[in-house]
Design a protein that fits this description.
By secondary structure, the chain is α/β, with parallel strands linked by helices. The protein has 16 helices and 5 strands. A 5-stranded parallel beta sheet has the order 2-3-4-1-5, with helices on both faces. It comes from Ureibacillus acetophenoni.
Length: 334
């Protein structure tokens, strides 16, 4: 857990400092909402906070990891901690009733009791109202931790009874470090860290053959557009259309295409930011040299227009033909 704590302190420095200050000042509240996107460490931070409050040998606001309580929390056998997740689509009223029954029964050890509710935004009306009554009148020292990726979907009356702890998105630099630590190349890590902020999703994408194929196709398309319309259309017919069947796949591919042209603009402007496609630097320098800012802007607008046409269910072949014409237009005049 020491390694995990170091990682959490790096990923969520403000939240960790906030929770450690709460503990240090002996101001542990009766309810918190941990609000943040997937992959921001909410679950690990929640377990850290429970450990911190229950540890028998805390040192410098960090749990010892070796006492009886720390070990039982780590193994999932701590009687003063209950956890619930949605049963299907929702968290149901019977789950909350069981939780409340568990929190009020005898058999708990001395000290503060905790419960963690995952995906708290998926409480339905009846379960939310039942929980609300318990939040208003908890028995003894009880702390609730509600985890959510959709804070505004939680009842305002529940929000008002909880301390809101906002988790920041993981920085791209941190995400790329984590990906490279998993053996993923710098170039692929750079690409997927633009697509998602969640480490697990990023790892899946980076190791997905279909995603790698789409990435390669997009970059080939950028090169083909520079050469001539015929090569670009050939690539669309032979590779793009057969590979991308679902609307979500085409949407993602258009995003990847837009990222490529943004990279070209960044190269032309000599910006020092990490490219989405660092492995294409030499190619993008050549394209940037032969492109005007106005042309690059028009090309990005054309991709955004194609994305809108996709949402309007325009014929996908016609949409891509039109996009290729719009992207290629002007190269002969530069």
């Amino acid at each position: 857990m020491t390694e995990t704590i170091d990682k959490l302190t790096k990923v969520q420095p403000v939240v960790m400092k906030q929770l450690q200050a709460i503990f240090e000042k002996n101001r542990t509240g009766h309810a918190y909402i941990f609000d943040g996107a997937k992959g921001t460490g909410k679950k690990d931070v929640a377990m850290f906070f429970v450990k911190l409050c229950a540890c028998l040998n805390v040192s410098k606001n960090v749990p010892c990891e070796t006492c009886r309580n720390c070990k039982r929390i780590e193994s999932g056998n701590f009687p003063n901690l209950l956890q619930i997740e949605p049963d299907g689509q929702f968290i149901k009223i019977d789950q909350i009733r069981d939780l409340i029954s568990g929190m009020t029964r005898t058999g708990f050890e001395d000290g503060r009791k905790f419960y963690i509710i995952y995906h708290a935004d998926r409480l339905n009306n009846s379960s939310a109202n039942t929980l609300l009554k318990f939040l208003e009148e908890p028995e003894g020292e009880v702390t609730a931790i509600l985890l959510t990726e959709a804070y505004h979907s939680i009842l305002p009356t529940i929000q008002s009874r909880c301390q809101h702890i906002k988790f920041s998105n993981v920085s791209r630099e941190t995400l790329m470090e984590q990906l490279q630590g998993q053996g993923i190349s710098f170039s692929m890590a750079s690409t997927v860290s633009h697509v998602t902020n969640d480490i697990d999703t990023a790892i899946l994408l980076a190791n997905d053959e279909q995603f790698a194929h789409v990435r390669k196709t997009v970059l080939k398309l950028v090169e083909a557009v520079k050469k001539n319309i015929h090569e670009a259309l050939f690539l669309v017919y032979e590779d793009w259309i057969p590979s991308l069947k679902e609307k979500s796949e085409i949407e993602q591919a258009l995003d990847l295409l837009l990222f490529a042209y943004r990279d070209i603009v960044a190269v032309k402007a000599d910006l020092k930011s990490v490219l989405v496609y660092p492995d294409m630097l030499a190619n993008f320098k050549d394209i940037a040299l032969h492109s005007s800012y106005e042309q690059l802007s028009n090309q990005m607008q054309a991709i955004l227009q194609a994305r809108q046409n996709l949402q309007r269910n325009m014929n996908r072949t016609l949409m891509m033909e039109q996009l290729m014409l719009n992207l290629q237009e002007g190269y002969t005049f530069v």
